[in-house]
Model the fold of this input.
Amino acid sequence: MTIAPFEFALWFSALPLLLVAATFTWLLSLPLKNVSYADSLWSLLLFAGGVCYALGSDPRAPRLSPVLWLLALWAARLALHITIRHLKGGEDPRYQAIRERHHPRFALKSLYLVFWPRAILAWVVSLPLLGAFASNRPIAWLDWAGVALWVVGFLFEVVADRQLARFRKDPDNSRKVLDRGLWRLTRHPNYFGELCLWWGFCLMAFAAGAWWAVAGPLLLSYLLLRVSGVSPLERHIGNHRPQYADYVLKTNAFLPGPPRK
Done:
């Protein structure tokens, strides 16, 4: 199978748009004194990148419409969920720790410490979207495998977020650990869903011949597992919930599986 062309100019054209969106969100965060809205921005940046690539691609590309619809559904749901969570709960403790380390003038520093890096990372992660539109190859079995993986990921995200939100509503759970539902199978079902979803997009890019798109989900996998996801979150939770050590012994870190005895 020949490799679909990599349109660097089209890919690069999305970067200024993402940086402008990140800067605008940073300006909104200043009076709120809450940089957690960078998390709400994440999915919207990826959607903006996808739209930018779609506008510069052949409108006859068979994956253009289905990928954009899946992307829009995921982006809108996740942005709304995260925004509501931050409106109710204030700034994420992980950002509070960054604020303390970079005091004073963190309000200014957050532009290049939090918001602009988020835009650049989204730009790289969005490569499967560019890849899916890179050729007019007909829909094949790999596309359907990608859609199936995307559906699994989306369901994991939605169900896990709802279960966690319901758990947090009960004040008696303030020091407890959620170990039911999907959280019984993996300690991070929402992150697992996120990776499934983006590897699903990547399979659709592979079906279009864009094997170079693998760089996007590889970066996202590294970020979620090592940088901004599993590792720092587990350190934070372990310091505040005494039962978490026992939960770690019983429950898989990432890939779902039956609890260990």
User: Anything to note?
Assistant: The radius of gyration is 19 Å.
